[in-house]
Amino acid sequence: MSLQTWLLFVTTMFFVSATPGPNMLLTMTHGIHYGVRRTLMTCFGLMSALGLIMMGSVAGLGALLATSELLFSIVKYAGALYLVYLGVKTWRSLPQPVAELSEDKSGKHGPWALYRRGFLVAMSNPKAFIFFTALFPQFMNAHQPQGPQLAILAATFYLIESSWQLTYAGSGARLARWLNSARRLRMVNRFSGGAFVGAGVLLTGLSRQ
Question: Where are the domains of the chain?
Fold first, then answer.
């Protein structure tokens, strides 16, 4: 892989990762409610799922999803249902002072719950499997060993994606003080909930192409 090809990949992933989507919305929402430090568990969940998706794509799952309408539909609708469920749950949640949430480390606000939520949100989009399957080969030299090239692309993706997640989480944390009122927190919950429901609905319209 040449330096020019790698820089093109960096530029591509910089803008792809920066685009607001369910992953970044979740990190910003958790940044508002839990602060950056605790949102790291959300980020770990997101990145764990993305790592599995990358490995699945390399192993051929992405190609299988691209060719099997039934399998693609099953994964798509399961992911859509989860996003809608998360959206309704967020919309209906009672506004709770940010200070209280940031200190509540048990139950649905504990580290494992935040990790699990991040993992499930990242896994909810079957298009991600096809995305990695289609994207990575475009930046790889077929005449050079594939393993080192995949490692470079994966490490680069992880660095850029995690940096944007932390940026969104930090932006949310900076907004927390201004949003720390029942009316504003209700507005955040409804905006985030509506966005997750919208993402779920849009997900049902995805095709394999």
Answer: 3-205
Tell me what pLDDT residue 65 has: 60
The C-alpha atoms of residue 63 and residue 47 are separated, in whole angstroms, by: 21
Burial of 166 (0-12, 13-18, 19+ CB in 10 A): middle
Amino acid at 61: L
CA count, 13 A, side-chain hemisphere, 81: 6
CA-based nearest residue to 29, from 118, 151, 153? 118
Query: Per-residue pLDDT tens for 115-169?
Result: 999 998 888 876 677 677 767 777 777 677 777 888 888 899 889 999 999 998 9
How many angstroms separate the CA atoms of 115 and 39, rounded? 9
User: CATH second-level architecture of 3-205?
Assistant: Up-down Bundle (1.20)
Segments in the chain forming alpha helices (H): 3-18, 22-59, 61-67, 69-92, 98-103, 111-123, 127-135, 146-179, 182-204
